[in-house]
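Lab meeting notes turned into a lecture example. A postdoc, R.K., suggested we walk through two folding results consecutively so the class can see how the record format repeats. The first protein's sequence and structure tokens come next.
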Amino acid sequence: MAEAHAHHNPFDPQHLFDHVQDSTSFDVPKFLVPSGKIEIPQPFNGEVTEAEYKAPVFGFDFGLTKFMVIEVVVALIMVVVFVRLANRMRRSDVPRGRIWNMLEAFLVFLRDQVARPAIGHHDADKFLPFLWTLFFFVLGCNLFGLLPWAGSPTAALATTGALAALTFCVSVGSGMKKIGPIGFWKAQVPHLDLPFVLAIFLKPMIFFIEVIGLFIKHFVLAVRLLANMMAGHLVLAVITSFIVATAGSLAFWGVMPASVLGATALNLLELFVGFLQAYIFTFLSALFIGMAVHPH
């Protein structure tokens, strides 16, 4: 009885997290699909149910999930939009149309206000394709979370962790390529005018702390984006759950308009947060790259 009650409780934590976490199905209204779920085909794991999703294949989980599908859609949209933009730019250097002007404004802003100040004018341009791709991919994933029955892949650590790992690889790889592997790791210890005896003890300790800090910075980069996107969606789920909780009572007619207006206002805030977090993630990535290629 308690389990049945918890299942129907709209404020049950597990029920709320189910709306923002990844899964092997898309939630849709029951008037479209009686079960309320559209299962994603599993060509590698076979046709598995939500309960069987955790079963690995040879130690690896090859299941396709909702966030994977959304990430592929975001990537395809980016390819279509920017390939068309590149083809138009080959024919003319003058921006024409709202879309072209808007996208070029984004690109120029990221180049002049993010990449070049953080990395330097001489080195920034070579990292622009990575930073541009990073920004628009994060932005697209963030905005998908505002669509009904979709979800935000950036509300999963697997996504933000992979993006942060890419930034880590680009940062460390670029630093080692520019000043050499030995020079890069040696540069992690700042120059200290220490007596020889103290240097023997202190410099290895400082090196260890700096290397740990290098990993922590990129881990925090992933967690920052994850926390901001998940928190907003959880608050939206809580606000709309008030409608379900009061259904069938007199309070419903007072709670429902307030919840709808509150959710609308929060959606507008989430729209701003989606752009802001994409900018912050890209800016911090550029900053970490700049620190790697210019350690001094």
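The second example is placed directly after the first for contrast:
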Amino acid sequence: MKGIRAVIVEDELIAAEFLKEMLEKHGVEVLDIVDTGAEAIRTCIRLHPDVIFMDIMLRDHVSGSEAALAISREIDTKIIFLTAYVDDEMVDYAVEAHAAGYLTKPYNEAQIIATLRLATEGTKVSEAAVRSKEKTPAELSEVRLAGGFSFDHGRLFKDGKQVALGPKALKLVALLCERPGTSISNEQISMHIWGELVNDKTLRSLIFRIRHLTDEGLIRNVSGTGYLIEPAR
């Protein structure tokens, strides 16, 4: 994840240092660590980081939510909230500040990197799609797949006969059919289908149901990090 520049806004030194260590381990450049809302606004506007990890509760009278709103009005950056809990007020702030996501404390390395990837890589994919004017899954013309399967305008077929899949299963197949033969990460799949990160068991259960109704080799796991759908050869 080299090339990503981050600022950490966190008033708990141990938590901040842990986050810094995890980010740097994955190639992220941590520009600064600050612990007040006012300093966060000044620092972030000056340094213009790619990503800001923003704690909600800070040391001064400016909360992380207020700082995020002020920053988002001045610069284009991704804000990931750090919070001990999620309530309606926090969600409202996140929406208004165009937050890219949130981490619920206590967080671990996997959660940190997954959330960061979704905030950065997901945006790149979206922007690339706009530039190339790619069609949405529902607009995709027929995609021929391995084993006599095909996906056409939101429906899966086997030798011309429609396969009865549920809404989530079809949504997953549609996502994979955007790039047949290319692995899609578990994190991207989770956000696309559920709108949040889900545990591996939930995703594996959905994959199992699809395989049960189709073919074991149609959707393939790639090194435990994602899934791809096999195109026709």
